[in-house]
Design a protein that fits this description.
By secondary structure, the chain is mostly helical. It contains four helices and no strands. The longest helix has 45 residues. The chain is elongated. Keywords: Membrane, Transmembrane, Transmembrane helix.
Length: 118
């Protein structure tokens, strides 16, 4: 009983921290909806662990823990892919920003003599 309460509290606290409005990701309603569904599924799995085994048997997986492992592998791979895409976009933005700064610095020093040319 205590472990169930502790797990449910941890799931809810982590979900609240994850779903806080942060920067550009705050407009993604689908992410919040999926997180809410995940929280509901996680809480139900803690309260009624037998439903996961029932669902696994329906799908054709041996045990509920195997189904959970397969689902976590899929979620992990999706996370890695989204982080990869985000990293590519950030690198592209950083490159553009560096180019703009270089152009601004080059145009501002164009009319001045170089150091040592006095």
């Amino acid at each position: 009983m205590w472990i169930q309460l502790l797990l449910i509290a941890a799931i809810i606290v982590l979900a609240v921290f994850t779903m806080r409005r942060t920067g550009a990701d705050s407009h993604l309603a689908i992410r919040r909806l999926l997180m809410g569904l995940f929280v509901i599924g996680a809480v139900l799995s803690v309260l009624f662990p037998q439903w996961l085994s029932w669902l696994a048997r329906i799908i054709g997986v041996g045990r509920g823990t195997d189904l959970l492992l397969y689902a976590l592998v899929i979620v992990f791979l999706a996370f890695v892919y989204t982080q990869y895409r985000r990293n590519i976009n950030l690198q592209r933005q950083l490159t553009l920003l560096a180019r703009k700064i270089a152009l601004i610095e080059a145009s501002s020093t164009e009319g001045r003599p170089a150091d040592g040319d006095d």
